[in-house]
Specification:
alpha+beta, 5-stranded antiparallel β-sheet
Length: 135
């Protein structure tokens, strides 16, 4: 019996990665991570805007409900304004406020239009409007 063992030739053993493959993998991972960072920033900014919009809408709804619950004869006939902080706490002065809330009641003696407007920077507005008939 002839037992001849063949040894692999030197340099043909391909058990690792080449430098080019490693560089290509690093470039692909870097591009993917930069894309995720961009998307994450957009999502964070969108969430902040939605939080502010929800707070402004809640402030407008609260004032609208307050005005609708007043007796018809007691509704104010002039425009009034108050301010609110970033936490939604209403205050009389504008110091430290994020929101400006204005409400107006207009119309004839037996039908009033109630308009509540909440504004904040940069030039954003939420406005609610309803009609209220004499009780």
């Amino acid at each position: 019996m002839n037992f001849i063992k063949t040894l692999p030739k030197r340099g043909t053993d391909e058990t690792g990665f080449t430098l080019l493959e490693i560089i290509v993998a690093i470039v692909l991972i870097t591009v993917a991570l930069l894309g995720l960072a961009s998307v994450t920033t957009t999502v964070i900014n969108g969430n902040q805007f939605n939080k502010t919009l929800s707070l402004a809408t809640t402030l407008a709804k609260d004032k609208m409900e307050e005005l609708k619950s007043m007796p018809f004869a007691s509704l104010p006939s002039a425009t009034a304004t108050d301010y609110a902080t970033g936490e939604g706490v209403a205050q009389a002065g504008s110091s430290g406020s994020l929101f400006t809330r204005t409400w107006t009641v207009t119309g004839p003696a037996n039908l009033k239009t109630i308009t509540v407007t909440v504004t904040w920077t940069p030039s954003r507005t939420v406005q609610l409007q309803t009609l209220r008939a004499r009780d």
